[in-house]
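pls read this protein:
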Amino acid sequence: MKKLFASILALCACLCALAEAPDGYYQSLNGKKDADLKNAIYQLVHNFTQVSSYNNLPRYFERTDVYPDSRQWWDMYGNAPIYLPWSGKLLNREHSFPKSWWGGSTGIPAYVDLNHLYPADAAANQAKSNWPLGKVDMTASTKYNNGVSIVGYPVTGQGGGSQSVFEPADEYKGDFARTYFYMVTCYQDLTWVTKYSWMMEQNTYPTLKGWASKLLLEWHRNDPVSEKEINRNEVVYSIQNNRNPFIDHPELAEYIWGNKVGQTFNGGSGSQQPTGDPNLVTPTNDMALEFSQVAIGRSTTAILQFRGENLTGNFELILSGSDKKMFSIPSTKLSTSLVNQPDGTQITVTYTPTAIGKHEASLIIVDGGITGSRIVRLIGECLEVPTLTACTATDPTDITNDSYRANWTYPANETVDYWVINRTRYVSGTATAEEVLAEAPGTIIEDFDQSDSESYSVQSVRLGYRSPASNVVFVAHAGITGVQADQGLVVQGFDGIMRFICSADQTGACIYDISGKLVMFIDTIHNNMDIDIPAGIYLVTTDQCHTPVKVAVK
């Protein structure tokens, strides 16, 4: 069980480090307090070796989130035993710190940071949505409860004004608290979306709102660091070369938000004062730099983080192994002056396979003043170009004022990394297109309250290739798709002709093609008015009819 060593850990002195960080890893935190201490942690952890891609996460989860000596996924969101291999229908790649809070950008490290990504029961994850952590008011009816995850109304004083909160099981409350401590420190420079900033303030210190820090500290204290977290922290470090300091040094949370605010931190193990000897902190020896699977004829890249102290001269970078020609680096020399910087530096390694199969080489790091060498294993896999069939979009469900659930089906025999929902919003006659990445059918689409109505189609993605787009499905706030009887506008399609039927003249007619591109604007349309237009499928809106009317012209 997760708490195998919890009673032992609870007896340890507060200042005793709980995991083996490399010598010197935390030395930059010594002598600092409050905002300066939080900033020092930010400088320490915010640059790291990013995993190769989002769709590659299940491969990393096999190392970070499987029960020891078992093939069962360690799911902190559900209680149903689920076993390898990965099933996107049963599990999601969950951003425990919701991505919508920073705007959902996929181009920042937070999107693929293993320190807050976990496998999650799909149903629980959908119910959790992007709600904040909090205590659920159990005197009211809960919105979701599977015995591990609870979603419901917050107790008084919690939630930061949100309608609901997510409360994990007692044995995982500390895990989530320490994850959030890491996230609001590692990404303290992000801009939080205002309507989702239930737990955060827009600053670098303290970042957490008062009610949130109080709650997380309570969970942090009551559920101390477990063997599970220690082991996971070590594996994540071996993958992306940064650590969660609040697992190694739980007392750090007290210095930043708790009962040691105002006191100076001087760490324990892994925080020795510098000796002046050359020290390459990252990458660690024999770490694996794994590339996402790639189709033959394409390339993929991975970023390798370097950070050290007192290094001299240059590093010599040597590619070795029978598959070394499939990997490339920008230069065989790396200046140690870059590596010695507080943030370190990064190099891009490229994998360009010339044959189908698994490939491995070594990047050997020598000189720079260090004794011996460091070896980074480079691992990639090349597959055939996938063949993908178009999905079938189905009617939306669970439509509310601000969200709905997008649904679709796809061939069961096809392997899919993820899906792209092509979403088109219609606001006052203007169409705006955007893409939403989805784990599985039944994905909740948020911010529906910003649209008069909208439509969506779906594409499956495998190895960067996309299927043809599905059919288009329409959704309106009334929960009715297609043409509503009381719209007062009917559009008919004939051979090269579009005809408008309306009880009164309507203004501002916008005609869009199926991709959402405006192809024609008409100031005023009249009953039985015909226009010439090429064959195709179109969407029509007017100032009086915001819900798009779909018409096929032959």
Notes: The longest strand covers residues 357-367.
